[in-house]
């Protein structure tokens, strides 16, 4: 029951006359000497005769809204709307006129002057009804508004909650002296916009010396003040806000400190400002006792929301710093990603995705999932991402890269047991071939143009960190325009759905795109059937259909790529014999091709790089070599041979280094002229490459 509600009881006979009434009804409704006995219900509550007659006729209760008040209040037009419920009573014996035929229960708002009269009602409204309802809120802004909705109207006419700025903003250092405070919420029962204009929400301010507000925040004790006209004017002058004088004139103001147990500063961490106007009873010692109990309980809720907010902000900052901010790929490959946290309470986890452009028009596409949630899983995910970038930079094949990750997870597991799953795909946009390996991860989905979607049959391997067997890979060719979809298990599995059903649903999303390929209304057909539109973003939306409302879902990471080879005019390769004359021929072929590509600025440097790489291949590897130029994001010069020996850089390339007088200069020259270079393994040997920036 709220403090602003009064309940009145009237016993009525079948004619509608009052034969019994309670004390509240006598006090509020009697408008004549002798009280209510014998008065007609229609005279006491205008409009009450109709629900009475209907209740007596049907034998069921009737409820209506009617204006209720004393005769004087009704005449002056200040009667209050009340809920009137008429309950028919059991039939009585003839002649038993003292027994009521019906009971009228009237619920009406109490007069303004009586709102804060009963301390027991106020205590119940604040501490038992209102505070438990809002105290569990973990959002600090929502909590502040909820607390003010409890204080106003059950304890005061207007109020505000202010907290020390360093408590709200973790990056704000604690201030010495009077700390700055931020107004978190404001409420008033009269709806006057002047309160919000004079005391804006979100304002950060330092209260002037000598004000009650300064005394409360410094001492941590409640402060009770009654503002006369002169006092309100002086306070308004100190603040430099003239409207404050009219708002506070004649009010009773009580400041309730918010004290935190672990606060590292003396005084209060903030306070509630509570004011009552002249139409209501001013605050007294009993109000201070009730208010301090409310403030103490509210402080625990504020502290919990503050801790949760800081931990959540830290966790989100950590995860956002660990997840990639941009995806790189060859110009012919389109890539789109989507990450969805598991829930609002746990917004960090171990799912991640990567798209890393590799030299020579290749791209590494990776999706992984560390078991568990929270900061620990996110930290492990960050370590794996860093390792993935390092291994991709070494041009390791997918299977070998996952084996190296498995060793890393085994090392991490010695301190914190963890395991993870990962799918690793390398696509070559020159040859149009993919190589894929998986460590305990769900199979990638492949959708060729106009063909049904299929899950790739990848050789099974144990998750990372288990280390029970080797990782195998599969290599295959793909058509231009093929969609490759990598995902984590949160997309297809939850507590109420089997993983096979989720996989089938996901495949149907891609199949609908294949069905729409031959229709004139293809895009509209796909959207109507839940398969997304033509873009990769719409496809991700279609794949996520039905999982947004699942409150118990796991994290979801998705990576979708539309694979397409780069134009044939942007790459060329030549077979060269293992003889000294091939070096001269390589320089001529390079100069001729760069002239066709209108890159004369790079002709001399590229010819020198090609001659050094071809010379090294002929001298140290033997057999035929392949020279390749690729124009994609830069100019790549690559030489492939049949040896698997990795070249080594010798010496320091100083002019007086005798070791490099006749030999050993090749890789030093490459390192000086190219912006980066490296070695990768091939099916028949190795490839040494170097890359220059395009002008």
Query: What fraction, in percent, of the residue positions are helical?
Result: 25-40%
Low-confidence stretches: 525-533, 657-662
CATH topology of the largest domain: Beta-Lactamase
The Cα radius of gyration reads: 40 Å
Q: How far do the termini sit from each other?
A: 78 Å
Q: Using DSSP, what is the number of strands?
A: 26
How do the strands line up in the largest sheet?
Answer: 8-7-6-11-10-9
Please identify which CATH superfamily of the largest domain we are dealing with: GAF domain
Strand content: 15-25%
SS class: alpha+beta
How many alpha or pi helices?
20
CATH architecture of the largest domain: 2-Layer Sandwich
Domain tally = 4
Biggest pleated sheet: 6 strands, antiparallel
Average pLDDT metric = 83
What overall form do the CA principal axes indicate?
Answer: elongated
Q: Please identify the top-level CATH class of the largest domain.
A: Alpha Beta
């Amino acid at each position: 029951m709220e403090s602003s509600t009064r309940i009145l009881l009237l016993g009525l006979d079948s004619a509608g006359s009052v034969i019994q009434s309670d004390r509240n009804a006598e006090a509020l409704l009697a408008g004549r000497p002798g009280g209510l006995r014998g008065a007609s219900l229609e005279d006491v509550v205008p409009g009450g005769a109709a629900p009475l007659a209907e209740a007596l006729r049907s034998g069921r209760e009737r409820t209506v809204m009617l204006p209720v008040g004393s005769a004087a209040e009704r005449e002056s037009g200040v009667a209050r709307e009340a809920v009137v419920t008429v309950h028919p009573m059991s039939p009585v014996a003839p002649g038993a006129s003292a027994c009521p035929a019906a009971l009228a229960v009237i619920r009406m708002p109490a007069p303004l002057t009586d709102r804060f009269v009963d301390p027991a009602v106020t205590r119940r409204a604040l501490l038992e009804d209102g505070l438990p309802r809002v105290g569990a809120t973990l959002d600090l802004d929502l909590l502040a508004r909820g607390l003010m909705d409890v204080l106003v109207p059950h304890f005061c006419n207007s109020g505000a909650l202010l907290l020390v700025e360093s408590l709200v903003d973790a990056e704000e250092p604690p201030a010495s002296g009077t700390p700055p405070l931020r107004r978190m919420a404001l409420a008033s029962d009269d709806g006057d916009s002047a309160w919000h204009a004079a005391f804006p929400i979100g304002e950060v301010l330092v209260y002037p010396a000598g004000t009650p507000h300064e005394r409360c925040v410094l001492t941590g004790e409640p402060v009770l003040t009654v503002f006369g006209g002169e006092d309100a004017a002086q306070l308004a002058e100190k603040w430099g806000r003239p409207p404050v004088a009219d708002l506070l004139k004649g009010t009773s103001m009580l400041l309730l400190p918010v004290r935190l147990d672990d606060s590292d500063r003396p005084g209060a961490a903030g306070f509630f400002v509570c004011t009552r106007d002249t139409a209501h009873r001013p605050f007294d010692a009993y109000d201070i006792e009730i208010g301090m109990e409310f403030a103490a309980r509210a402080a625990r809720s504020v502290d919990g929301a503050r801790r949760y907010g800081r931990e959540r902000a830290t966790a989100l900052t950590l995860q956002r710093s660990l997840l990639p901010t941009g995806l790189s790929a060859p110009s012919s490959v389109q890539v789109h990603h989507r990450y969805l946290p598991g829930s609002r309470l746990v917004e960090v986890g171990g799912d991640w995705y990567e798209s890393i452009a590799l030299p020579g028009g290749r791209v590494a596409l990776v999706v992984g999932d560390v078991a568990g949630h929270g900061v620990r899983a996110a930290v492990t995910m960050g370590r794996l991402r860093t390792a993935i970038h390092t291994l991709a930079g070494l041009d390791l094949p997918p299977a070998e890269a996952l084996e190296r990750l498995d060793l890393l997870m085994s090392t991490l597991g010695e301190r914190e047991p963890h395991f993870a799953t990962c799918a690793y795909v390398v696509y070559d946009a020159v040859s149009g071939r993919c190589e894929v390996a998986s460590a305990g991860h769900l199979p990638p989905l492949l959708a060729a143009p106009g063909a049904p979607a299929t899950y790739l049959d990848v050789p099974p391997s144990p998750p990372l960190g288990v280390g029970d067997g080797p990782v195998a890979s599969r290599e295959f060719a793909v058509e231009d325009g093929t969609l490759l979809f990598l995902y984590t298990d949160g997309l297809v599995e939850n507590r109420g759905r089997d993983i096979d059903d989720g996989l089938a649903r996901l495949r149907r999303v891609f199949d609908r795109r294949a069905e729409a390929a031959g229709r004139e209304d293809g895009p509209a057909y796909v959207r109507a059937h839940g398969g997304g539109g033509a873009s990769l973003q719409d496809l991700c939306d279609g794949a996520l259909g039905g999982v947004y409302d699942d409150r118990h879902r796991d994290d979801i990471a998705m990576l979708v790529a539309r694979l397409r080879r780069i134009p044939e005019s942007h790459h060329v390769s030549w077979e060269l014999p293992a003889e000294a004359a091939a070096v001269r021929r390589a320089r001529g072929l390079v100069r001729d091709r760069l002239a066709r590509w209108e890159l004369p600025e790079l002709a001399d440097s590229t010819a020198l790089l090609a001659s050094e790489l071809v010379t090294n291949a002929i001298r140290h590897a033997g057999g035929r070599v392949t020279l390749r130029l690729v124009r994609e994001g830069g100019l790549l010069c690559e030489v492939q041979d049949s040896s698997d020996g990795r070249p080594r850089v010798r010496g320091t390339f100083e002019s007086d280094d005798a070791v490099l007088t006749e030999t050993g200069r090749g890789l030093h020259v490459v390192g000086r002229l190219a912006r980066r270079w490296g070695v990768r393994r091939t099916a028949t040997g190795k490839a040494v490459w170097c890359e220059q920036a395009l002008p």
